[in-house]
Design brief:
Layout (H helix, E strand, L loop, with lengths): L1 H28 L11 E6 H4 L3 E11 L2 E5 L4 E6 L6 E2 L4 E5 L2 H59 L5 E2 L7 E2 L7 H23 L7 H26 L9 H43 L1 H25 L2 E3 L4 E6 L6 E2 L4 E6 L4 E7 L1 H4 L7 E4 L3 E12 L6 E7 L9 E8 L9 E4 L4 E2 L4 E7 L2 E13 L2 E6 L6 E3 L12 E3 L1
Parallel strand pairs: 1-24
Antiparallel strand pairs: 1-23, 2-13, 2-17, 3-12, 4-6, 4-11, 5-10, 6-9, 7-8, 10-12, 13-16, 14-15, 14-17, 15-16, 18-22, 19-20, 20-21, 21-22
Length: 499
C-alpha cells in the first residue's frame, strides 16, 4: 500500500516539473511589449491640405472603339466558314455562308426579267428620239427658209421696187411716176417695208433652235405678204388699158416678180407646216411616254427592278459579312451547323483602339471634364473623351468614356481608374474632408482633433458626398487640423501624432 502511494506521489511530482518547464518556455517565447507603442498612431490633416491630394477612384470596363456582333438574318445550314478565330479582317469580309442555291436562282431569274423590261422600254422610247430628230430638222428648215426669203425679198426691193422711188430707204420715200391714185398707199407701204426688214434681219441674226421660230415665221410671212401686196398694186396700175402700152415691159417684169413672191409664201407655209407637224409629233411621243404605252413599260422596268433588288437582298442574308475592320474575337459556328435567325455568328472588334467605359454618380460627375487625364491600373494614362449629357436610365449614373493606349490591357478587362481631384478648384466656398475622418451619427457626425495627445470630438454639419470625400457645411474651417482616419478610434483615447 505504501509503495503504491509513493509511486503516485513520484508521478505527480514529475508532472509538476514538466508543467513548470513548459510554462517557463512559453513565457520566454512571448515578445517584450515595447512601451513606446502603447498608444495608437494617428495622422493629422486639414481640408486645405486634403484638397490637393484627393483621388477619385472608379471601376471601368475595357472595350474596342468599334465592335460589331455579326448575327444571322435568316435560318439555314452553314456551308462554309472563311475565317478563323483571331484573324484580322477588313470591312465587308465574308465570315460564313449559308445554303443559298434557291436565292441565287431567284436572283438570276430576276435579272432576266429586268433586262427584258429594259429592252421593251428602249424600243418604246425610240419614238421620242425620232420625233426629237424630226423637230430639230424642221427647226433648221424654218431658219434656212426664212433667211432665203429675206435675201429674195431684199433683192426684189433693191433691184426692182426701189427704181420707182426717190430716196426709197428713207422716211421721205416718194414715187417717181404717177400711180393713178395709189401714190400715198405705195409710199407708206415702202416706208413700212423698210422698218419691217430691219426687224426681220435682227430676228434672223439671233435665230437658233432655241429661239421662238413661230415668231420668226410670222414676221417672214407678214413681210412677204406686204411685198406681194405692193407687187399686186404695181400690176394693177401697169395693166390699166390706158397705159398698158407705156408699161408693157414693167408689166411683164412684175408678173414674174409676183410668181417669185408667191413661191416664197409657199415655202414659208411649208416650213411652218413642217414645224407644226414635228412639234405635234413630239408632243404625241411625249404624251405616249407619260401615257399608257411607255408608262406601262416604265412600270414594268420598276417592277422588275424591285423584284431583282428583293432577290438580291434575300441572297445577301445568306452571306454573313463583317461591317467593320478588326479582329475576330468570337466565332461561334462551323460548317454543317444549322443556324436560327438572329443567332450570333461572330464578334469583330478593333482591338488596337481601346476605350474604357465607366459610370459615375452625380456628385463625382462634378469632378471630371472632357480632356482630363486619368491613371488606369496605376500604370497607364488615359484621357476622358466623352461625358454623357444625361444619366443612364439603367445604371442611374453618368457614362464616361476614356481613351487609352495601354498595351497591357485587353478588350473586356475590368480596370480601376483614378483621377487626382483638386477639390478647391471645384467649389472654393465649401470645405471637403475624407470620409474616413468622420464618425457618422444618425444626423451628421463629428471629426476628431488631438488636444494634449487625446482625441476630442468636434461636431460637424455634413453635406454632399463626392467620391471618397464629404462636404462639411459647418463646424470646421479649412485650416483646422483633424485626424485623417478615425476608424477604430475612441473619443478620449490617448494617441501618438505623426506628420
Amino acid at each position: 500500500m505504501w509503495s503504491n502511494r509513493k509511486s503516485v506521489r513520484v508521478l505527480f511530482g514529475l508532472l509538476l516539473v514538466v508543467f513548470a518547464i513548459n510554462l517557463l518556455g512559453k513565457r520566454n517565447d512571448n515578445p517584450v511589449v515595447d512601451a513606446t507603442n502603447k498608444y495608437p498612431v494617428v495622422q493629422l490633416t486639414s481640408s486645405a491640405i486634403y484638397a490637393g491630394e484627393q483621388t477619385l477612384s472608379v471601376i471601368g470596363t475595357v472595350r474596342a472603339f468599334s465592335e460589331a456582333a455579326v448575327t444571322a438574318e435568316s435560318s439555314g445550314r452553314v456551308v462554309s466558314v472563311r475565317v478563323d478565330l483571331g484573324d484580322e479582317v477588313p470591312a465587308g469580309t465574308v465570315l460564313a455562308t449559308l445554303e443559298n442555291a434557291a436565292e441565287q436562282a431567284a436572283v438570276l431569274q430576276a435579272e432576266g426579267v429586268y433586262e427584258a423590261a429594259l429592252a421593251a422600254a428602249a424600243q418604246t422610247n425610240l419614238g421620242i428620239d425620232e420625233a426629237e430628230i424630226a423637230l430639230n430638222n424642221a427647226e433648221i428648215n424654218v431658219i434656212t427658209t426664212s433667211r432665203s426669203a429675206f435675201n429674195t425679198v431684199n433683192n426684189i426691193i433693191e433691184t426692182t421696187i426701189d427704181r420707182y422711188y426717190n430716196q426709197p430707204q428713207s422716211l421721205a420715200a416718194r414715187l417717181k411716176i404717177g400711180m393713178r391714185g395709189y401714190d400715198k398707199e405705195l409710199e407708206r407701204a415702202r416706208v413700212s417695208l423698210g422698218k419691217d426688214l430691219s426687224v426681220w434681219q435682227e430676228q434672223l441674226e439671233i435665230s437658233s433652235n432655241e429661239s421662238d421660230l413661230n415668231a420668226l415665221l410670222n414676221t417672214s410671212e407678214s413681210i412677204v405678204n406686204d411685198l406681194l401686196s405692193i407687187v399686186d398694186t404695181f400690176l394693177t396700175v401697169f395693166s390699166d388699158q390706158t397705159v398698158v402700152g407705156k408699161y408693157q415691159a414693167d408689166l411683164v417684169e412684175f408678173t414674174t416678180l409676183r410668181t417669185s413672191v408667191i413661191s416664197l409664201v409657199s415655202s414659208l407655209n411649208n416650213a411652218k407646216s413642217g414645224l407644226n407637224s414635228a412639234e405635234t409629233a413630239l408632243k404625241r411621243a411625249q404624251l405616249a411616254a407619260s401615257g399608257s404605252n411607255t408608262s406601262s413599260a416604265d412600270a414594268q422596268v420598276k417592277q422588275a427592278l424591285g423584284t431583282l433588288r428583293s432577290a438580291q437582298a434575300n441572297l445577301s442574308r445568306t452571306i454573313l459579312r463583317t461591317p467593320i475592320a478588326g479582329t475576330v474575337n468570337s466565332l461561334n459556328v462551323k460548317a454543317g451547323d444549322y443556324l436560327n435567325a438572329m443567332s450570333e455568328v461572330a464578334v469583330v472588334a478593333n482591338n488596337n483602339a481601346l476605350e474604357v467605359v465607366t459610370f459615375v454618380s452625380d456628385n463625382d460627375r462634378e469632378l471630371i471634364e472632357v480632356g482630363d487625364l486619368v491613371i488606369i491600373e496605376g500604370d497607364y494614362e488615359g484621357v476622358i473623351t466623352h461625358v454623357a449629357p444625361a444619366v443612364d436610365s439603367l445604371t442611374r449614373k453618368t457614362e464616361v468614356r476614356i481613351a487609352t493606349e495601354g498595351t497591357e490591357i485587353a478588350n473586356g478587362d475590368t480596370v480601376r481608374i483614378e483621377k487626382n481631384v483638386i477639390l478647391a478648384d471645384t467649389k472654393p466656398s465649401t470645405t471637403k474632408i475624407p470620409l474616413t475622418a468622420v464618425k457618422f451619427e444618425r444626423e451628421n457626425g463629428f471629426v476628431m482633433q488631438v488636444k494634449d495627445n487625446k482625441l476630442v470630438a468636434v461636431p460637424v454639419v455634413l453635406g454632399a458626398v463626392f467620391g471618397g470625400s464629404v462636404e462639411v457645411k459647418e463646424g470646421l474651417e479649412s485650416s483646422d487640423k483633424f485626424v485623417k482616419d478615425v476608424r477604430g478610434l475612441v473619443v478620449g483615447e490617448s494617441v501618438e501624432v505623426i506628420e
